[in-house]
């Protein structure tokens, strides 16, 4: 058979792309980071369990769809997206959705689905109860949560959730005033300002002057936090902006305006606040106050039960409302107002009304600029026949509303809604008090996630951001990112990460950026100043010419810490082809790529789009036993036991289903699914994963404690837990039947060595049919040399030297094993494993990574200092350390034999350019 030319392969791949751009693809243009990363910050594509297996109704492309009701650990009165990509909720006690309690925080990892392991419960610090508090991001990426109700006699404290969302501590500084129902924003200078609020549970519209006289209206003076202390703005004390009349104090709707001041709406008044010096406030009328009305279109859209959003810089939509508080109000308003604050004075105009009145709804800005309004009641917080379940969308281009799909349960007072990275909305909470106590959540999938194929609705093909020049954007500068998109790019936007409570999202704001595109590189201009887009955290989203948004990538803007991760959700699974080869692996399918992978590829959920270059792990599919090398026994579950937590033990091999394990691609590796029960090999999370943690079966959920990566050893493989970097281990190294399994520090022993289940073989172009299929076989080799462009020499370890710290130097190319490097997929890129020693190319951590840091070999551990991302340059590639964003470098740019390697700032020079040459063995 004639071998096809590269052009022919590309043409065929292009034809496949054209024919398979169907609804089942979300990330059909995603490239593996180690293959395709053009820039140093590689976006890790993570399988999205929230978009998998949807039963999509035919009207989804116009109305969107809802997930149905899902369990949630608490009634989420406060809800927010964090720089880590995780979600925080708080406001009630876990398991007691009607109890007002802000001392428990739930942290949810969306990439782990909705299984029990996806949630982490954190206990708040003593002396702080954050029920009905307010929050804003600080410069270090932590979330400052201030105000609330009394705890141990204190209601003026603040809690701080750290940037990685694993600890909550108390702030040292105390507020000067009680701040129940207040609003906090981050100012253009990075400090926080808190406005409004009252003494907990007391004061309000019924007796305004009496509330002031009794000292209950403590929030009329704003305060500013500088990271160490609070400062009162006595010049900005204002009853008209923050007082008891008509509920003005109650979570004032407020935004940083384009002129750097604060603009706000408090019931029937508008105001501007200058935070400079001692502060100053100017107020003006907005609309008539709350009143009884005969129709929703006549009811004023004001008060705490209204909702509002800044949908583009300086332009605000305010809708619904007409209540004093959750217990006292009138027929809800359907009216909408537009407020333009870009000029010298705010200008308010009427907009088209909603189809129905809503009180206590939530307004969420979508990447495409459309505002989604969800939840609410036709009469304050009443249930029954007054419940509004339908979503509704306002399009700023047309000024019109359209009604969308309906949710399943009433979401009114204390309900929340946020935009997720995958473009869906998480909608939760409601009650405490109210006609419901919602310890549950729903997901709403907007119409832009869908298309119509052959008359049926399905998921739309989506753009995907592959890599970034930086994830710390500065104002008034250009940045670049790499985009794979089947339908070009029409818009690039930044959207602030949501923090919402009481029908108001304080941090969401949308900035459409100007940009240019050259091939797959997009260059955007960041916001010009900190007033247009205050410092903080945003989702970067590219929208294609069909209006479909990419999954968001979280970036920092301004003088704030970098986000702790760069990941984006995709449908299906990223490529996991080829265990140790230098190519193998399509781009989104499991299959191996054109020639040079020793590992075998597998099937994938999405078709590949490019040839060659994969690095991955196990293939998908097939099935077979996991036989322990030292005992010859097979890992099994008890016959007939389908329970979660059933033990995994070694037993005489029988070939039965309870000893058969099928491989399934998951985040960061592969899951082993038992053929008898359909459940997964699971490292127990009942305690933190350490030596001796049990391995058992559990319902498959795609979490990292069910993800394993193979490491060749002793005629089989070790299987390393992605969650803990510990190996699957027959406990005690015994050969006795019935011995249980655990995770343990990897030691290369026979009780950690297993023969593999059968997997699919590698593919020629990253094949695999839509929804998963088996690619055909490609050329396979054991690895390749890294030839230095300026010297023509090859990187090598000393012959026979297996020690940690052995130098990596350039030597005359010999084709021997000590010059052969095998890629292995790890989190964020690829490790390069030496064929002679089995050890990894390692950037030394003996000192902080910097120019000149040594590169040598070290035992593989999957850390960032052993993780490399490639960037095409010259006639080869640069290798960027994921740990430092510095390039692999032959030090001194010399052509001399024996010159050693290190890290250096990337220059594009020949001593940083390496060609991969196959070494067939």
Structure write-up:
The chain is mainly beta. The chain has five domains: 147 residues, Immunoglobulins (Immunoglobulin-like), CATH 2.60.40; 163 residues, Galactose oxidase/kelch, beta-propeller (Methylamine Dehydrogenase, Chain H), CATH 2.130.10; 112 residues, Kelch-type beta propeller (Neuraminidase, 6 Propeller); 135 residues, Trefoil (Acidic Fibroblast Growth Factor, subunit A) (Trefoil), CATH 2.80.10.50; 135 residues, Trefoil (Acidic Fibroblast Growth Factor, subunit A), CATH 2.80.10.50. Helix content is 3%, strand content 36%. It has five helices and 72 strands. The protein has a six-stranded antiparallel β-sheet with strand order 8-7-6-5-40-41, with no helix packed on it. Strands 1-36-38-44-43 form a five-stranded antiparallel β-sheet, with no helix packed on it. Strands 3, 4, 31, 32 and 33 form a five-stranded antiparallel β-sheet that branches. Strand 6 and strand 7 form a beta hairpin. 61% of the residues are buried.
Write the layout of secondary structure elements.
Elements: H1 6-19, H2 33-36, E1 41-42, E2 44-47, H3 60-63, E3 65-66, E4 70-71, E5 78-81, E6 87-93, E7 96-108, E8 119-123, E9 134-137, E10 143-146, E11 158-161, E12 168-170, E13 180-186, E14 192-198, H4 208-213, E15 223-225, E16 230-232, H5 239-242, E17 253-256, E18 262-266, E19 269-274, E20 280-285, E21 307-312, E22 315-319, E23 323-325, E24 328-329, E25 336-340, E26 347-351, E27 362-365, E28 371-374, E29 390-395, E30 400-406, E31 415-419, E32 425-429, E33 440-445, E34 450-453, E35 456-459, E36 464-468, E37 472-473, E38 478-484, E39 491-496, E40 499-501, E41 504-505, E42 510-513, E43 515-518, E44 521-525, E45 536-543, E46 553-557, E47 567-570, E48 621-624, E49 627-628, E50 634-636, E51 649-651, E52 661-666, E53 669-674, E54 680-683, E55 695-698, E56 708-713, E57 716-721, E58 727-730, E59 741-744, E60 754-755, E61 784-788, E62 794-796, E63 809-811, E64 821-826, E65 829-834, E66 840-843, E67 855-858, E68 868-873, E69 876-881, E70 887-890, E71 901-904, E72 914-918
Parallel strand pairs: 2-47, 37-46
Antiparallel strand pairs: 1-36, 3-33, 4-33, 5-6, 5-40, 6-7, 7-8, 9-10, 10-11, 11-12, 13-14, 14-15, 15-16, 17-18, 18-19, 19-20, 21-22, 22-25, 23-24, 25-26, 27-28, 28-29, 29-30, 31-32, 32-33, 34-35, 36-38, 38-44, 39-42, 39-45, 40-41, 43-44, 45-46, 48-52, 49-60, 50-51, 52-53, 54-55, 56-57, 58-59, ...
């Amino acid at each position: 058979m004639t071998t096809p030319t590269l052009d022919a392969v590309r043409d065929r791949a292009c034809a496949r792309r054209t024919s398979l751009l169907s609804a089942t693809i979300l990330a059909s243009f995603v490239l593996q980071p180690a293959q395709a990363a053009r820039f140093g910050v590689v976006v890790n594509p993570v399988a999205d369990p929230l978009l998998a297996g949807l039963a999509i109704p035919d009207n989804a492309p116009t109305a969107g769809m809802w997930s149905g009701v899902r369990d949630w650990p608490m009634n989420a009165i406060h809800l927010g997206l964090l720089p880590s990509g995780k979600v925080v909720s708080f406001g009630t006690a876990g398991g007691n959705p009607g109890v007002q309690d802000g001392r428990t925080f739930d942290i949810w990892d969306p990439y782990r689905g909705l299984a029990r392991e996806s949630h982490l419960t954190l206990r708040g610090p003593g002396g702080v109860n954050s029920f009905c508090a307010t929050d804003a991001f600080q410069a270090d990426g932590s979330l400052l949560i201030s105000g609330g109700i009394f705890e141990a006699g204190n209601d003026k404290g603040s809690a701080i959730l750290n940037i990685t969302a694993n600890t909550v501590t108390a702030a040292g500084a105390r507020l000067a005033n009680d701040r129940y129902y207040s609003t906090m924003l981050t100012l253009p200078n990075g400090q926080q300002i808190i406005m409004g609020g009252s003494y907990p549970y007391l004061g309000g519209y019924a007796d305004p002057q009496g509330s002031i006289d009794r000292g209950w209206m403590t929030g009329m003076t704003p305060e500013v936090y500088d990271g160490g202390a609070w400062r009162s703005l006595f010049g900005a004390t204002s009853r008209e902006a923050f007082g008891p009349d008509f509920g003005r104090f109650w979570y004032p709707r407020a935004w940083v305006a384009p002129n750097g001041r604060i603009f706000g709406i408090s019931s029937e008044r508008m105001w501007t606040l200058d935070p400079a010096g001692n502060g100053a406030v100017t107020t003006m009328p907005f609309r008539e106050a709350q009143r009884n009305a005969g129709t929703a279109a006549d009811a004023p859209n004001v008060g705490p039960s209204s909702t509002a959003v800044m949908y583009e810089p300086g332009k605000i939509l305010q809708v619904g409302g007409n209540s004093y508080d959750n217990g006292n109000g009138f027929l809800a308003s359907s009216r909408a107002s537009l407020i333009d604050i870009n000029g010298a004075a705010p200008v308010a105009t009427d907009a088209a009304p909603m189809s129905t009145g809503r009180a206590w709804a939530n307004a969420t800005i979508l990447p495409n600029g459309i505002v989604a309004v969800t939840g609410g009641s036709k009469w304050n917080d009443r249930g029954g026949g007054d419940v509004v379940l339908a979503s509704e969308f306002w399009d700023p281009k047309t000024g019109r509303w359209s009604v969308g799909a309906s949710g399943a349960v009433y979401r009114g007072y204390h309900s929340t809604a946020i935009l997720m990275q995958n473009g869906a909305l998480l909608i939760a909470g409601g009650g405490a008090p109210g006609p419901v106590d919602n310890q549950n959540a729903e997901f709403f999938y907007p119409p832009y996630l869908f298309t119509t194929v052959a008359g049926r609705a399905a998921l739309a093909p989506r753009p995907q951001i592959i890599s970034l020049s930086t994830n710390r954007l500065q104002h008034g500068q250009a940045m670049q990112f790499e985009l794979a998109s089947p339908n070009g790019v029409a818009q690039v936007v930044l959207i602030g990460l949501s923090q919402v409570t009481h029908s108001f999202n304080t941090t969401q704001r949308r900035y459409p950026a100007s940009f240019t595109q050259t091939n797959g590189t997009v260059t955007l201009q960041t916001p010009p100043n900190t007033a247009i887009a205050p410092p903080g955290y945003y989702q970067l989203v590219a929208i294609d010419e069909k209006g479909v948004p990419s999954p968001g990538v979280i970036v920092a803007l301004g003088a704030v810490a970098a986000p702790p991760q760069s990941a984006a959700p995709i449908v299906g699974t990223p490529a996991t082809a080829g265990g140790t080869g230098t190519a193998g692996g399509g781009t989104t399918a499991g299959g191996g790529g054109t020639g040079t992978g020793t590992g075998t590829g597998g099937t994938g959920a999405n078709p590949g789009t490019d040839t060659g270059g994969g690095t991955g792990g196990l293939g998908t599919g097939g099935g077979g036993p996991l036989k322990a090398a030292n005992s010859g026994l097979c890992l099994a579950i008890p016959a007939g036991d389908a329970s979660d937590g059933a033990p995994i033990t070694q037993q005489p091999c029988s070939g039965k289903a309870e000893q058969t394990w099928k491989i399934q691609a998951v985040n960061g590796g592969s899951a082993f699914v038992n053929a008898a029960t359909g459940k997964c090999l699971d490292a127990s999370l009942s305690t933190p994963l350490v030596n001796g943690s049990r391995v058992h079966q559990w319902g498959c959920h795609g979490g990292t404690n069910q993800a394993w990566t193979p490491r060749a050893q002793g005629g089989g493989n070790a299987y390393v837990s992605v969650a803990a970097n510990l190996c699957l281990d027959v406990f005690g190294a015994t050969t006795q039947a019935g011995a249980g399994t655990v995770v343990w520090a990897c030691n290369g022993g026979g009780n950690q060595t297993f023969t593999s289940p059968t997997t699919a073989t590698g593919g020629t172009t990253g094949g695999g049919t839509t929804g998963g299929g088996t690619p055909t076989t490609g050329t396979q080799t054991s690895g390749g040399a890294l030839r230095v462009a300026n010297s023509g020499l090859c990187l090598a370890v000393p012959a026979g030297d297996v020690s940690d710290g052995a130098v990596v130097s350039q030597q005359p190319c010999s084709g021997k094993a000590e010059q052969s490097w095998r890629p292995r997929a790890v989190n964020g890129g690829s490790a390069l494993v030496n064929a002679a020693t089995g050890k990894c190319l390692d950037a030394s951590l003996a000192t902080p990574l910097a120019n000149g840091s040594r590169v040598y070999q070290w035992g593989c551990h999957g850390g960032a200092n052993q993780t490399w991302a490639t960037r095409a340059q010259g006639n080869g590639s640069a290798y960027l350390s994921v740990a430092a964003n510095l390039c692999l470098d032959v030090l001194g740019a010399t052509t001399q034999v024996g010159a050693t390697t290190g890290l250096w700032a990337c220059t594009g020079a020949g001593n940083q350019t390496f060609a991969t040459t196959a070494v067939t063995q």
